[in-house]
Structures are given as C-alpha cells and as structure tokens.
Amino acid sequence: MKPESRQPWLTDHWAASQHNFDPAIVVPAHPVVLHDITVRDGEESADLAFSVEDKVRIAEALARVGIRRMELFLTVPGWLETVRQLVRRGLDMEIYVTWHPGRVERALDLGIKHIMVWYRIGEVFQRHVLKHSREKLLDEMLGAVRAAREAGAEVNLFMPESTRASLEHLRTAVEGAKKEGASAITVVDSQGVARPAAITYLVRQVKSWTKLGVEVHCHNDFGLAVANVLAAYEGGADALHCAVNAVGYRAGNAALEEVAMALEVLYGVRTGLRLDLLPELSRLVEEITGLPNGYFKPVVGRGAFSYEQWGATADLSAGGARPYAFPFEPEVVGRSPRLVIGKWSDLGAVAQKLTEFGLTASPDQLQTILHHSQMAGVAHHRPLRDDEFLAIALEQGAVPGE
Q1: I want to staple 8 with a disulfide (CB 3.0 to 4.6 A). Which of 168, 268, 275, 341 is the partner?
Q2: Together in a domain, 320 and 172
Q3: Do 62 and 94 share a domain, yes or no?
C-alpha cells in the first residue's frame, strides 16, 4: 500500500483502530494547543521543590520539543527571577502567570502578556474555606479580570472546582468574565471527580454560552485525566493542560507525553511536537524532580494523598464537609492524608504540623516559621523532614502546648 493512499489510522509509523475514525463517532478536526503545567502544578506537588535553574531547564526542554505555552505560579520563592530568566532567554513560548496583586504587576513589567485569573467556584469551598458570599467572590474575580485587561494582559479565567459547581453558577461566572474582557475560560476538575462525558458536556456548555476559547485542566485521582482532556478535545476544547510525567498535586495531571501521542495516533491531530524528544523530556523532569514515573499513580501511589497546604482541608473538615476536601476520603482505601512542609506550604500546614508534635506558636511566630520553612524547602530541593521542620519551629520560638 502506498503511503498516499493510507487512512488517518494507518501511517508508516502506526496502525491504530479504524473505528476511531468511523463517521458515526468522528470528532470535527480543530486546532488544539498543549498548555504545559509541569512547573506550575509541580509547585503544588508535596514532594518536590523547583529551583529557578530547574524551571529554566524544563522550559528550555519544552521549547525544544515544540511546546508553545507554559504556566508559572507567582506564590513561591524565586518566582520573579524565574520570570526574568525566561523572558531574557526569548524562548518561542508564551508564558502564563497566575494573578497575584502586588506581584503580577512586576511580571507584566517584564513583558508577560497572559494572566490566569482564578475564581474558586465550588460552592462548598466558597462557604467553608473562603467564608465569603458568592456575590463578593464573583465581584472580586470580575475586578481582577478588569484590572488585568486594563494593564494590557490577555485573561484566562481559571475556575478550580468547576466540576462541582452548578451550571447556573458556571454560566454566571463565565458570562461575567467575558463581559469584563476575558478571552478564554478554563474548566478545572480540581479533584479529578468527573467522567469524560461530563467534561465533554461542560466544554460544550461553556463554548455555547461564551463563544470564547475553552481550556481544560484535569487531575488524575481516578486515572482519568488523559481520557478527560481528550474528551474535552472531542467537545471542542482549544487548549489542553498537561504536565510531563503527570507531575502535579496529589495524583497529578494529564501526562503531556500520553496526550500528545493519543492526539497524533488516535485522533489524527498534528501537534507539531518533536515526538522523538518526549523520552528525553521525561527523563529530564524525572531527574530534576527526583520522583520516578508512577509516584503520582492514583489510589495507591505515594503522592496520591500528599499535601503541602492544609488550610482548605482543615476548614472543610471543621465545617462538616470533609468529603469535599478530597476526591474521596483517603480512609476509604486504607490511606491517611500525608502532610509535609515545604516551599508551597501555608499557615494552616504549619499550625497542623506543630499540633502533631504537641507544639504551639503565636501568629507572628507561625508566619516566621512558614517563611523559614519555605526557604529551606527550596534550598533542600524537597519538603522538610520532620526533624528539620522541628529545628526551625523551635528556633523560632514554638513551645509545648497546654
């Protein structure tokens, strides 16, 4: 058979199922972008800490492979130098940063043009953790979108807990963001609790409401992240958030290498990536993180119930909504939440860890312990061992509780 007569499922390099391309289930072909979150969501992973150099090396490797978008947090030590270094290198890549008043302005001054404005849309999260009304939080989000647009940035509304929000709430948020100038909406399955069909449905709904670009960010707590982002493509999604080696919070995210190959082989989508460089990229991230592939495996993996922040979990538990703090309660599968202290920890994590060791500290001491712990986490390139955390806590004045 001559190559020019072959069908999409059959090339010189693979032979997939012809049924993928049956007219009864064919997916309308449309451009799609892979948006890399290895560094950004990696900041949320409990057992790793990136240095500025690490982030730059990963960005350069992503650019070599052909990734044209990546995202950074502005809430960890070294964020400004990371932005500065990436801008200085002039990579053929758009840099997206998270909205953070007081910091995002400095990123914009360095030439960043893309802002992810977060709106934590889950009603239970808003009520028990943020402890503000929907109206107030919605107004704050719309104000952030407006401010980012006035600063000349392109805005992507990023909505954690999208899959636990009502359609009415989702529609109000996305239509409001569009009115204020947002150009894209990201549907977020924060706890990995949606089925592929649900993701397809939500993507189609948001596109029908707004006619804006729609993106998806799916966690992998049931092993469905890759399936879910592919389902989003089937629903018309314009960008799929992925991470090398599935790096990310808890059970991680959709693995970039798997999504890329699935798009190419199973959907006939040309991603523009150097597929032959994917193993090299994977090995680099494995080397930098020190985490082997499989660390993020759902249910039984070491990282599946590891946490570096504790405020939300504690607030949900105290409010009687503990199941909402997890994709499913860890005890169901014989696990317990595992709290570590490091570069992305919050005050709640420090307070909880002190409680575990029978210690207490004043609010000022908690803040100081947190700062020193974050800096030590970055310096050690990992979360702190208990003895290291205890040494910092005691040095900063923590004392036995009553």
Answers
A1: 268
A2: no
A3: yes
